[in-house]
Amino acid sequence: MKEDLTESIPSYSNDELVKLLEQYKTYLFEEYLPFIDNYIYDRENGGYFWNSTYRGKQLSTNKRTWYDARGTWIYSYLYKHIEPNPLYLQRAKQTLGLLFKTKEKDARFWPWSYDILGKDLQEREGDIYGNLFVAEALVGYAEASGDDNAWAKAKEIMLHAFQLYQSEDYRYLLEYSPSADYTAAEEILGHYMIFLHLATSLLSIKSDENISQIADSCLDALIHQHYDSEINLMPELASKSKNGLDEQLTQFVYIGHAIETLWMIMEEAKRRDDQQLFDLAATRFKHHVEVANDRIFGGFFHGIDHVKENRFLLDKVLWAQEEVLVGCLILIEEHKDEWAWQYFNKTLRYLQEHFINQNLPYRPWKINGNRQMNNQEEGKRIENYHHPRHLIFAIQTLERILNRNTLNLNSYEK
């Protein structure tokens, strides 16, 4: 998707972009990756010791499908798009091996958790997200390694998961529900979000009619079913029954998901070369960012339990802040958008001031905190997906912008 940008004069200079790019490379290569290498990655068995403090102290050696699968995607993507370090691909392959060791043949889901060697701890049943993250890991590995079987397996997992999700009796344990009386959700924005992003990734490698149909279904659900024109926001929940949802549930907007979803729709629009879809998603993205903005203490809220009653979740989570940054980067690259540039800088400064543990080795980023982000915690989980994805996305985007500005395709590549 290209447009005439000759008359658009951004307020930022190439020197600013170069400085920003170098800062991001420091965050990724000198801080995040060494921290993971020294404290979190299990070199012997594969997988991630996610249950660790910000100082890298392991609180448990148990592992989770979510985190192992998403970490696998990160290493695969790093190898393919950032730096062809054989270690990245080796770790992706090693952790995929662990993941496939954990699942019983007839189980409908990958296990929720398992021990250091991959034995199911049977804490609870896994969920559809675990399966989809394994599929995402396979897509990343397929692209990095050229393994067509990995792509085919990812497709198989996705098709089975989508069929399950569309069944009338499917229910999801909604642990972030605004109501204690509603925990078995039927239609969830977050599901369509992951299905769409997975479809975009699969279709970016090769075309496929079945996957294209799923992408179309997801877009329809996200643009229409999960959009309320009265409040101009994307509610998290919908119903499969004619009775619909209680009014309280229709007012629940998990706005961090909505923001993440909207940049993913922009990415799918780019893949389709659909300017109208891109512009619609961009407009809604900006509005959701404005609504989520905490104008008193900075940063962004990630949930609104009831829009009309103005009941926001007041804690702050890292992933929601970083999804704002990713969407802004897309708009900066595509439109040289001044609004996006201003919000990007404001958000990054906020994270630098409130989320980075400046006095700890490798300066790990906090994953959450109270509204003011002034609580002191040792941490108990290390973020190995949203955070590195944001860092990688920023490096790629800034390099492309600089390359375009300088007309030299190799000037700023690492």
From TrEMBL:
InterPro entries: 6-hairpin_glycosidase_sf (IPR008928), 6hp_glycosidase-like_sf (IPR012341), AGE/CE (IPR010819). It comes from the Bacteria. GO terms for biological process: carbohydrate metabolic process. GO terms for molecular function: isomerase activity. Signal peptide: none annotated. Coiled coil: none annotated. The keyword Signal does not apply. Keywords: Isomerase. Belongs to the N-acylglucosamine 2-epimerase family. This is N-acylglucosamine 2-epimerase. It comes from Sphingobacterium zhuxiongii. The lineage of its organism: Bacteria, Pseudomonadati, Bacteroidota, Sphingobacteriia, Sphingobacteriales.
